[in-house]
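One such given next:
>
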Amino acid sequence: MIDKLRTAMKLLLTIYRILVAIFTIGWWLAALMAAYGAWLYFSGNGRP
């Protein structure tokens, strides 16, 4: 019983870490794309 609980907790922790990693990477990609878009816009090379 305790082993099953420990395995379930480990699985939940792994899923949580994967979700946090995906969220963090997605947030960084969005921030980089926004900065790149703003740079293109202000440099005048972007599409109007």
About this structure: Helices lie at 2-43. Residues 2-43 form the longest helix (42 residues). The chain has a mean pLDDT of 91. The chain is about 90% helix and 0% strand.
